[in-house]
Design brief:
Distance between the termini: 60 Å
Radius of gyration: 24 Å
């Protein structure tokens, strides 16, 4: 995928970089929309990261570790990537920050977007496993644990980082990333194809296929419950847990749908423009590509509202946080302040892991 400052042909080392001449009627509204996206996404994703770090019960759930990774990726996107896009739109893509900062900006862009889609893929696999094996949570060695979730998230970040370093280390068409005071992506054709297929198209197709399977499993379970013919889900508690897994899968599917709607248009236009070359150069205005990229960035602002701000455990954490801040503003309430601070960190929010312990205790002991 290409950034908005790289709308010329990637392998056109002998051609001039196109000049940008945006009208004020386009620059100011689009700039304000970008600033709004940055503000909402920065606050929202910071609150998601804070809630998971502050509340131990949220960290117990492996899925929330993936949510933390996704929120961190979105936070880095809107704080380290989008501001340079805003400046570029306002200054007609004149780059004033030097070669090293240009490389850092491009590298960060190449890290955050693949991290988001690969994290969504990992969450989708976790949801599918939970539904395909409804008794998995009762096993001593479960499919997804906190250590596995942390390891998978770490490997996703490491892979994205190493993949982003490839052009910086030398696989590019030009030695300099800054050409005619413009920061652009001098990627060779194979690299552009690989990053488009491996880091976007293939993970998204696999994720969609997984959710088709999830939909089939959920539909089959719904018919079994209505007919009371389920053999695997014999107890009421197991049925409740399965229903929670279905709701969680639906929530993650909203994540995937939002990512698909926000990023696919821009990525499709970029790929088509790359394949067509000069024949499509004039037919796709730069303004349209900037708007499509802005919708891609919008996904970072939507994610906190799609999950954390709709989840009762996160809401309870934020409520305790607000109460703690109010108490801290009253110096005469030292004892009560301490109690609420501890409740913020420990939290009484019920987590799915607590249900596992309670259900395990209901199983008959073997003599």
């Amino acid at each position: 995928m290409k950034n908005s400052s790289a709308y010329h042909k990637l392998n056109s080392s002998d051609e001039e970089i196109p000049s940008f001449d945006f009208m004020p009627g386009f620059v100011y509204p689009v700039t304000l929309c970008h600033i709004f996206i940055v503000a909402v996404a920065a606050v929202g994703n910071f609150l998601v990261c804070y809630a998971i770090l502050a509340n131990r019960n949220l960290r117990i759930n492996p899925t929330n570790l993936f949510i933390f990774s996704l929120a961190l990726s979105d936070l880095l996107t809107v704080t380290l990537v989008v501001p340079f896009d805003i400046e570029g739109i306002y200054l007609q893509w004149v780059w004033n920050h030097g070669e090293m900062m240009c490389r850092a900006w491009i590298t960060m862009y190449l890290i955050t977007v693949p991290t988001s889609i690969l994290t969504l893929l990992a969450v989708s696999v976790d949801r599918y496993k939970s539904l395909s094996d409804p008794l998995n949570r009762f096993r001593r060695c479960r499919f997804m644990t906190r250590k596995r979730a942390f390891f998978i998230s770490f490997m996703i970040w490491l892979y994205s980082f190493l993949f982003a370093l490839v052009p910086v280390m030398g696989w590019r068409t030009e030695n300099n990333f800054v050409q005619d005071n413009t920061c652009y992506f001098p990627f060779p054709s194979p690299y552009f194809i690989l990053t488009s297929v491996l880091n976007f198209i293939l993970p998204l197709l696999i994720t969609c296929a997984i959710y088709i399977k999830i939909y089939m499993i959920a539909s089959s379970h719904h018919h079994n419950v209505e007919g009371d013919n389920s053999r695997k889900l014999r107890t009421t508690e197991e049925k409740k847990m399965y229903s929670r897994n279905v709701r969680a899968a639906k929530t993650i599917s909203i994540f995937v749908g939002a990512f698909f709607c926000c990023w696919v248009p821009f990525s499709s236009v970029s790929i088509i423009a790359y394949i067509c070359g000069e024949s499509c150069e004039g037919s796709i205005p730069y303004e349209a590509r900037i708007l499509l990229l802005m919708f891609g960035y919008l996904n970072s602002a939507l994610n906190p509202f799609l999950f954390a701000f709709r989840n009762r455990r996160f809401k309870a954490t934020y409520s305790l946080m607000i109460k703690s801040l109010k108490v801290r503003s009253k110096p005469e309430s030292k004892i009560r302040r301490s109690t609420l601070t501890q409740s913020t960190i420990g939290s009484d929010v019920i987590d799915s892991q607590d249900n596992d312990v309670r259900l395990l205790s209901m199983r008959p002991r073997r003599e």
